[in-house]
Amino acid sequence: MTGDDAHWAFGTSFVDPLAGVDTTLPDGVDGGELAAYCLMLGDDALVASHRLAEWCSNAPDLEEDVALANIALDLLGQARLLLARAAAADPGAVPPLPAGSPVPGEDALAFFRDADDYRCVRLVEPENGDFGETVARLLCFATWRLALLARLVDSRDPVLAAIAAKGVKEVAYHRDHAARWVVTLARGTAESRRRVRAGLRAVWPHRAELARTHPVEARLARAGVAVDPADVVAEVDGVLAQVLRAADLDDLGPCAAGPVLDGPGGRDGRHTPDLAALLAEMQVVARAHPAGRW
Amino acid sequence: MDTIVQEDLQEQFEATLARGDRIEPRDWMPDDYRATLVRQIAQHAHSEIIGMQPEGAWISRAPSLRRKATLLAKVQDEAGHGLYLYSAAETLGTSRGELTEKLLAGRQKYSSIFAYPTPSYADVGTIGWLVDGAAICNQVPLCRTSYGPYGRAMIRVCKEESFHQRQGFELLMTMMQGTDEQRAMVQESVDRFWWPALMMFGPPDADSPNTARSMAWGIKRDTNDDLRQKFVDMTVPQAERLGVRLPDDGLVWNEARGHHDFTPPDWDELAAVVRGDGPCSAERLAHRRRAHEDGAWVREAALAFAARAEADRAGEGAR
Amino acid sequence: MSAEWPLYEVFVRGKRGLNHVHVGSLHAADDTMAVRNARDVYTRRNEGVSIWVVRADAITASSPDEKDPMFAPAGDKVYRHPTFYDVPADVPHL
């Protein structure tokens, strides 16, 4: 890891995100599978971060501009580490670039993969909507991610374990931030209550996908490397129910079972159209200069 | 007001300045001093906030994860800087809300530079290098400005701003080591930003009627032309090191003066931009207005929630 | 709607063993939000281990001199005696 608590984003010299970290694969773990798993968690963080960063200069007040940017920076840091771990675990997962291209593996993964190759859940993809919808989505996402990372600190892959340990502290704050806003808006004015309720309703259908287990997650969970999302369903539902109670929005219900998502989802590369649009924008400069140095 | 007391206060105020001491919020100060400070600090704060936009537009398209984070952190800093400066203005008895209203109504200004477009990703580097470089020239002397809260805000701003300029220079340097296309991007961006950067120091001293008084009050520490000259002298060797050309055929070292001679920018263009007729002026204000108005229901909700919680606590206390 | 969140003053303990020092101010709807905003705004470069916030209108200030009460404008609104951070020796010149 980068050593101390200092935010790596503030450095200006190029630093290999995994410099000094032993990236040897744990016994019996397939590099391709580990890379696939890192892409799932990394893509979740990258896309969620990108959306939150869109709030920059658009937030309800300057203080919130700063707060949302902090959250986006935390998630971007996690994404960078996870994509670097994926590239190290399976160099074959990295999209091919022109010979001599200086683009590092994590950037090749972020900027030269098409939507079909992204592995994020659909929850993080849609356009932001209003502030009510954004905090509803963040509540859902951070609650789920915190439950996953809290278990991932015991991963047999020391790199994943270290990334999770750093992430737990960050995401606990994200969850708290979102929960406070949901409660504040729900108990603020009639208008804010209407809006946050609409936001929660817009986000809710995506929760079913968070409870599903992809075969890669199942196999790596058995190997002690990954977390099976099925194992965190009860915890996530419990936390969300608690927030909804505080918000006096019990009627939305935790909907533990949720609407079943049929067929393949984001983890299989089947995404909402919003992701393709997001990536078209995010990747435009990098792809125009495949041999570029940044 | 009693004239004798008034003179006494004026004398104390001037004695404080003469000692090189700072004026603090609860001190007596002349009305004009207060008004000049509010105008300057507000303009400065507005510049930070409006300045989030031209670069912020590239956060979604930054071509590496490291650059994406750096840029987001930088634009976030600008929100913080605006916030520090609005706070300094609040010690003078004005509120952030009032100042924002004045900005949106076009009654207060922001730096002319942010009325220019940023059509190229290289502009992120150029803004860091030239625009933040010019801003630092302006701002470092303000750390010693006579009004305490303003000076302290500037110390904090300058401390953080050095990262901004360095990341910009480093981005351009890296791009200059990349492909031919990237080098062309850098040169094109520098060509566009050179003249607007020179304008950032304001009109020539002869046309800057407030300068003398602001300097006498210690609000301003250097004249526009002195700062502009300093900026040019600083930038020339940096440009050489980068391998870019500054787009001024009249730019030459003058041995006798010990400074570079250079062609002044188009002052009519600056006047137009300051009037609000810059290429992106309307767009910048519209963006700010939209964010402010879209956020109103959230700010209102948080106040309503706080009032309710307060009432609940009071109710419990009464029982 | 022009409702403004109240102003808070922020004090940060830079590290263990030091006093909380006034670093600036910010707006928040309530005390809890003020602490959280202070964390985001004033400690994003790891500048602190502990934060105090207090509503600016709850601060009672001594007057810098005896004439002050008569002439300080809007004395109830202009409350601060901010000190921000100590001046660093390395304020960058470039």
Automatic annotation (TrEMBL), chain C:
Pfam families annotated for this entry? Answer: PaaB
Q: Name one GO molecular function term.
A: phenylacetyl-CoA 1,2-epoxidase activity
Which controlled-vocabulary keywords does the entry list?
Oxidoreductase
The domain of life is Bacteria
InterPro entries xref list: PaaB, PaaB_sf
Query: Which Enzyme Commission numbers does its entry carry?
Result: 1.14.13.149
The enzyme's first-digit EC class, named in words, is: oxidoreductase
Please name the NCBIfam families in this protein's record. Answer: PA_CoA_Oxy2
What is the protein named? Answer: 1,2-phenylacetyl-CoA epoxidase subunit B
**What's the gene?**
paaB
